[in-house]
Design a protein that fits this description.
By secondary structure, the protein is mainly alpha-helical. It has eight helices and no strands. It has one domain.
Amino acid sequence: MKSKVLNGLLLAILAWFSYLLLLISLQYIPFSSDAAFLRIKIDEVKIWYYIPFFKFHVFTSAILLIAGFTQFSRWIRTKFRNVHRYLGWAYIVILLLFSAPSGLVLGYHANGGWTSQLAFMLLGVLWIYTTIRALRFAIKKDWRRHQNFMIRSYALTLSAISLRLFKYVIVFIWHPLPMDTYRLVAWLGWVVNLVIAEVIIYRKDKR
């Protein structure tokens, strides 16, 4: 009973933060290069490829959160297998063709110098790797490993939320300089998620 309540609470929190991220994406509709985050990317918006990749990343990442959210519902997996399958394919195709490649481009142009750039580009590489592995194990019908790599992949997807959450907490408690905060959350946003994912996988496999 406690486990079901905890899972329900976690899903509710995830749904709430996904909704907040969706609101962030909606800031760019109708699109303007002078909106929100782009206001501090004065030089980058002049590069011919930056805005297209930015659009790919912002708008498709919101879809990934929703599609990935449904993949871990046992109720959907058992009652609506086709929904699980189609949304799973949507998650993988959108991530590999749009979200992750555009994320690598944005990571290359990240604020904060080489430390932030390395963090975001490594995130992009791991995002692609874990998703391809999840796909390969699904094709082989190795469902345990497929689920494990989907957990890792979605943990990296959730870095879009955790990065902002860490940023708010760090600024609220310590008030560091903006660029120092950005360099720190560039790593915390996905490394902590991966550690949590490994703990979840370990406990699941142990059971």
